[in-house]
Design a protein that fits this description.
403 residues; alpha/beta; Rossmann fold; Dehydroquinate synthase-like, alpha domain; 2 domains; six-stranded parallel sheet; three-stranded mixed sheet; globular; binds fe (ii) ion
C-alpha cells in the first residue's frame, strides 16, 4: 500500500479506536495515599473478603526487606499469604505461567502486586488468566477475557508507569522478546496504595528514568488528538507535579512530600493515557529497548525531546497552552515562543537529571527494522498530532545515535 493509503487506513483504525475508547468503561482503583497507605491497603484487602493473597513481586525487593512488613500486615489481618518473587524486568509469558501455577497450587483468591510496572503488569495478567481457563497468551489484544479477574491490588514502588490505574498490561514473548499488549478494563486493580515511604530508597537514576516515563505519558496524552477535558486535567496536573517535584525527589530521595507528589503524578498520567493514548516517543523507545536493552523510562527520556521538536509546529497551540498552564509562559508570548519554551524546559529538566541526549551503539543497519516496528506500533493505535514518514523517523534515530 502506498504511504497515503497506509495513512488513510491508520486514520480509519483510529476513528474506530476512538469510539471504542469512549465506550470502554475505565474503572478506577480506590486510591490510598500517604506514608502508611500500604498498611491501610492490607486492611482493605481483608475487608473486601479475600482469604489467601498471592504477592507478585521480584527478588530485589524481597532482599531489600520491603516485602516482609507487607506480609506481616496481611497476616495480622488473618489472611494467608503466598509469595511469588519470580518477576523480572519486561516479564515474559513464562513468568506469568509460573505465578499462575503458584496461585492455583496454593488456592489463592486475591493478587497483590508490589513493585514497578513489571510486577504490576505480570500480576494483572496472572489475576486475569486465573479465572479464564485460557492460556495467558490467548488474552493478548483488546477485551479477550470473558470473566472478571481475581480481586487485584497494587502497591507501586516506583513513580512512573502508572500501571496501577491503566487498562493495559505488557508481557513479552519468551523467544522473540516482542512485547504483547493486553487491554481490558478488568485488569485495573480494585485498590492501590501510593506510599512514598516505599519509594524513598529508590536510586536517583531510577527515580529520574521512571519520573520521565510519567512525564512522557502526560505529554503524549496532552498532544494526542484523543485528548479531552478529563485527560487534560490529569495530564496537566501530572506535568505540573513532575516539573515541581522530580528534581527534588532526584536530589533527595527521602523528601517524602516530593515522593508522594511523584507517585500522584504517575497515577494521573496513567489516567490520562487510558483515554488519550501514547505517541511516537513510546513507539520508538520500545524498539530502542528491544534492540539495545535500554530501560523503558531511560529510552523515553532520550527520545522525548526529539519527538517534541518534530511536533513543535503541529502541536504548537497545545504545547503553548501547557507552557502557560505551568507558568513557563504568559499571555504576552505568542504560541511559537511559548511552545518552544515548554520544549526547552523539558530538555533542561532531562539534562539536570544527568540523562544523556544519545543512545550508545545505535546501528544504521537496525534503522529499517526499528522504523517498521515503531510505525507498526504507532499507526492506527496512537492519535499523534503529526504523522512521521520513514525519513522523519530516520532523522530522529540519526540524531539520537550521534555521540
Ligand atoms: Fe511508558
Amino acid at each position: 500500500m502506498n504511504p497515503l493509503g497506509t495513512r488513510l487506513k491508520a486514520r480509519a483504525q483510529l476513528a474506530a479506536l476512538k469510539v471504542a475508547a469512549t465506550l470502554l468503561p475505565s474503572p478506577r482503583p480506590l486510591v490510598l495515599l500517604g506514608a502508611d497507605a500500604s498498611h491501610k491497603l492490607c486492611q482493605t484487602i481483608a475487608q473486601l473478603g479475600a482469604h489467601h493473597v498471592l504477592i507478585v513481586t521480584d527478588k530485589g525487593l524481597e532482599k531489600l526487606g520491603m516485602i516482609d512488613p507487607i506480609v506481616r500486615r496481611l497476616k495480622r489481618q488473618k489472611l494467608s499469604v503466598s509469595l511469588f518473587t519470580g518477576v523480572l524486568p519486561d516479564p515474559t509469558f513464562s513468568v506469568v505461567e509460573q505465578g499462575l501455577a503458584q496461585l492455583k497450587r496454593d488456592h489463592c483468591d486475591a493478587v497483590l502486586a508490589v513493585g514497578g510496572g513489571s510486577s504490576i503488569d505480570a500480576a494483572k495478567v496472572i489475576a486475569l488468566a486465573a479465572t479464564q481457563n485460557r492460556k495467558p497468551q490467548k488474552l493478548v489484544g483488546v477485551l479477550k477475557a470473558r470473566k472478571p479477574a481475581l480481586p487485584l491490588f497494587a502497591i507501586p514502588t516506583t513513580a512512573g508507569t502508572g500501571s496501577e490505574v491503566t487498562v493495559g498490561a505488557v508481557i513479552s514473548d519468551d523467544k522473540t522478546h516482542q512485547k504483547a499488549l493486553i487491554i481490558d478494563p478488568k485488569v485495573v486493580p480494585l485498590a492501590t496504595a501510593l506510599d512514598p515511604r516505599l519509594m524513598r530508597d529508590l536510586p536517583a537514576a531510577i527515580t529520574a528514568d521512571t519520573g520521565l516515563d510519567a512525564l512522557t505519558h502526560a505529554l503524549e496524552a496532552w498532544i494526542s488528538e484523543f485528548a479531552n477535558h478529563d485527560t487534560d486535567v490529569y495530564a496537566g496536573a501530572a506535568v505540573r507535579l513532575i516539573f515541581d517535584n522530580l528534581p527534588k525527589a532526584y536530589t533527595d530521595g527521602h523528601d517524602l512530600a516530593a515522593r508522594e507528589a511523584m507517585a500522584l503524578a504517575s497515577h494521573y498520567a496513567g489516567l490520562a493515557i487510558n483515554k488519550a493514548g501514547l505517541g511516537y516517543v513510546h513507539a520508538i523507545a520500545h524498539q530502542l529497548g528491544a534492540h539495545y536493552g535500554l530501560p523503558h523510562g531511560r529510552a523515553n527520556a532520550i527520545v522525548l525531546p526529539y519527538v517534541l521538536d518534530f511536533n513543535l509546529q503541529a502541536a504548537q497551540k497545545r504545547l503553548a497552552q501547557l507552557a502557560r498552564e505551568t507558568g513557563l509562559a504568559g499571555s504576552a508570548q505568542d504560541d511559537a515562543v511559548a511552545a518552544r519554551r515548554l520544549v526547552s524546559h523539558v530538555r533542561e529538566l532531562i539534562a539536570s537529571l544527568n540523562i544523556p541526549h544519545h543512545v550508545a551503539g545505535v546501528r544504521h543497519e537496525d534503522f529499517n527494522a526499528i522504523i517498521e516496528a515503531a510505525f507498526h506500533e504507532a499507526h492506527g493505535t496512537y492519535a499523534v498530532p503529526r504523522y512521521m514518514a520513514a525519513n522523519d523517523c530516520q532523522q530522529v534515530l540519526e540524531a539520537l545515535g550521534q555521540d
